[in-house]
């Protein structure tokens, strides 16, 4: 399990990081909005712990941007703002939970387990995007109801794109998720597989399925 901690108070951040590490979470601690954006662009997380009073902006603005851009990771706000209005605003913007400071680490861990359980239970076994449908249990892909034959890697790559619509996926992330390997700058393997998916699923050049984001990776549009 991976947890992203966005907290500018060093002692608080390290305290949460240590507690999660003891629960076998793989953690990353960042202290600014800019660092949080970079972290979430590089890899998905099972949960995000978000402070609101950050050095370079308001965590609520970051949350609003994440939800607008379809980042669906569970977010728990951990903030000294404890007014009811603040909690309501955070939840309305898409936070999965809101825990005011000071807080009990046991309560935080319990809330993390709760939102992760809810997220896991909500995951669908069928993914769709436009005319594309991917049955994860049956391992069947269709376009306009017609079966499309895919290799195991093509299926895994399409699944990754369908799980992250509108999100720019870096080549490093794709390599880790689909090939379970570090990205090799010398290979064009990812580009080859993206071309295969385009050939099988793009019905018209005027309506691209996967957009190349130069210097970064790819985006399902």
Plain-language structure description:
The protein is α/β, with parallel strands linked by helices and 221 residues long. It folds into 2 domains: 2-122, 3-Layer(aba) Sandwich (Rossmann fold); 126-220, Arc Repressor Mutant, subunit A (Orthogonal Bundle). Helix content is 43%, strand content 24%. The chain is built from 8 helices and 14 strands. It has helices at residues 10-22, 33-42, 59-68, 84-92, 105-122, 152-163, 171-179, 189-201; strands spanning 2-6, 26-30, 47-50, 53-54, 57-58, 75-79, 97-100, 126-129, 132-135, 140-143, 146-148, 168-170, 210-213, 217-220. Strands 2-1-3-6-7 form a 5-stranded parallel beta sheet, sandwiched between helices. The protein has a 4-stranded antiparallel beta sheet with strand order 8-9-10-11, with helices on one face. Helix 4 links the parallel strand 6 (75-79) and strand 7. Helix 6 packs across helix 7 and helix 6 (152-163) crosses helix 8. The longest helix has 18 residues, at 105-122. The model has no long low-confidence stretch (mean pLDDT 90).
